Amino acid sequence: MYNTKEIEEKWQNYWKEHETFKAENNSDKEKYYLLVEFPYPSGAGLHVGHVRSYTALDSIARLKRMQGYNVLFPMGWDAFGAPAEQYAIKNHIHPKKAVEENIKVFKSQLLSMGYSFDWTREFSTTDPEYYKWTQWQFLKFYEQGLAYKAEKEINWCPQCKTGLSNEDAQGGVCERCGTKTEKKLKSQWLLRMTKYADRLLEGLDETEFLEKIKVAQINWIGKSKGASVFFGLEGLDDKLEVYTTRPDTLFGVTFMVISPEHKLLEKYKDRIKNISEVEAYQKEAKEKTEIERTDASKEKTGVKIDGLKAINPVNGETVEIWISDYVLANYGTGAIMAVPAHDERDFAFAKKFGIKIIPVIDNGEEELTEAYTGDGKMINSGFLNGITNKEEVIEKMINYLETNSIGHKTTNYKLQDWIFSRQRFWGEPIPMVYCEKCGWVPVPYEELPILLPDVTAYEPTETGESPLANITEWVNTTCPHCGGKATRETDTMPNWAGSSWYWLRYMDPHNDKEFANYDILKYWGMVDLYNGGMEHATRHLLYARFWHEFLYDQGLVPTPEPFKKRVAHGMILGENGEKMSKSRGNVINPDDMVKAYGADALRVFEMFIGDYSKDASWSENGLKGCKRFLDKIYRLKDKVVDKEGYTSELENIINKTIKKVTEDILSMDFNTAVSSLMILSNEYDKINELTKSDYRILLTLLNPIAPHITEELVSICKLGNPICETPWPTYDETKMIDETVTIAVSVNGKLRSSMSVPTNTGKDELIRLAKELENVQKHLKDKEIIKEIVVPNKIVNIVVK
RNA sequence: GCAGGUGUGGCGAAAUUGGCAGACGCACUAGACUUAGGAUCUAGCGGAGCAAUCCAUGGGGGUUCAAGUCCCUUCACCUGCACCA
Description:
By secondary structure, the protein is an alpha+beta fold. Strands 6, 7, 8, 9, 10, 11 and 14 form a 7-stranded mixed beta sheet that branches. The protein has a 4-stranded parallel beta sheet with strand order 2-1-20-21, with helices on one face. A 4-stranded antiparallel beta sheet has the order 4-3-5-15.
């Protein structure tokens, strides 16, 4: 009937030649900034999941443009990092080359879908012109003391042979390869993200993120309020600091627990009589994976330290110190005061090792069978006895701690500083130089970018060093400070670095003086709508917000928060309802679908497939149905006669459909937008003649979702200028009023009949008409009418007894 | 365990926010046209019943003239986080 490929290429060329989708940096128009997460140009190419989210935002972009907005809808490539590097290693080509090839494929696939990206703003994070500014921003972090090098126990992936951030090692497994991570002590660059913990929490109020995304971020930041308490060490002029959220239970402390990594153990090695037992436990803990260690259901283990005892500062009692892996080294102070009566974990530990349990909150029971965590009257607690209000007790205790200098109020976060070093070749070199004399020295701004060398070996090394360490001619340099011999930092940045500011570069992508001009940043402001996967709710989104808040503090960007609204698309699952994967053999290649049914049909189908935010299973039959819908629209052209103005009997539904489609696309209810267009086309199908206006409005409304075929039909039928160059239609409320409405009539709430009456018929009249209906009379017979309810234009309900 | 979410035909889903449950599409059934049909058109399509009618939105209870929608309770599944002191 028609050749989709020909039509699609024709219009894709038209848009390119006419620069239809170019966003203007100097414009009087109101701006609208739509952002989709830029993809990794992996060897696998475009996924039908990409098609879903890109089509969604593309249709909004197209509609907004027609509504007169200056729309920024850019696309680029997030090409540093492990996937690109592994692809290169596997295929024995340089990552740079691999990235180039993959981008080419990816881009041609995106072009074939007809997306309205402004391609003049395209860049890759691996372009030296781009990563120059990533390095530049790192130097800013360093200048402000927010980038620092520290010896730190990090998550190490033995498979990838690189360190990972906490965010990349969630659940104790490497996010890339699924290998269980190990703990490894390494000197690392870190970004002081903890300094922004509160800002990252407060900033959420300025956004319209989905609730579940906000919750995920709040949980990850993990703010908790409590107190630091200093326990004395018996016979020593030293203290053991613990963090607790329940200082009110201090009188219930019967032992202390420190993590196996706690520095106290090294410090007082000589005093500890059972040091070999302690060391054996430390070794055991180290060899366990994070998963094994943090399995809450497993039985508690631990060793009592013989030779070190703590003194409870509120009652002077001596308590034993234990080590156990249920206390984590990297949270709080790595040490806890244990209150077995009121903490489940401490309770389990005390039961196992026969430690005494002293209740300090009265729960009314004789015997404690489990930790009591509720409210109650304070007992066994000295000056706190008798108080029942928990908040009051906590406040009293904190006051006591502070006046006696044995503790103070503190806030704690689960969020930790961002581990920013990767022992990898394919990443932005960290622009730092190490000099024997001067220590770590930043590379001067004018020397940026520090380019990655062109070499042949980029496999990770066995030693845990970056592959760059082997390239001596690159590593050896002079100190920018003293001019003496120095070496470059050989670790590279994590691949989250490039994606932590890319939306800013899109606004001013060719600027070689600054990462982006401030006035231009000010014009575009915040990203209005940012779409991406749920998997980035705590990582990319947290890093990006942190980075942006920092730039704001430096006066480099105009707003504290980067993204106004964040939405997440549901996954496209395989036809069998499982996640698409090569091993399951249920992967659908968008290229094949475009070839068989055309880009428009694929776009329509993915919008029609279901609720945008929910997962949906692929269905080739569903796609065929959407192709049939487009074919039907194509056939409608034969009914078009040379007349203008809407056919009067269609006027009502046309106006309703304009309203529905406009609202649905903007609120991302794409499935119902498509369905209302199907309904409209079904109406067109029922009549013999269509005016040019009738046909054009249908094509216009469908255009954001199916841009090629609709433009082609406007052109074939000579319906005027291309849709993309004309304004989006408005609707006329007065034309949407129906002349007659169908009223449902029920008796005792059960539907008995219905009637067609003029719109806005009065209540009394409706009741009168309703009672005349045969089936209604039948149900009213010999009954007493108690109540008559009328909802105008909707329903009549007669209640009888 | 905590947090967020979802339960509606054979399937994907709608439901103007308390007012005719199942729009639209898929699959299926019957028929028409056809050398042919993975094209098109017509009709049907939650269950039971010849019918009037009855039963149906995970289960149970409640509010109401009226509940998929509101309240209580319970079950199932998904997705995060999880020994965070």
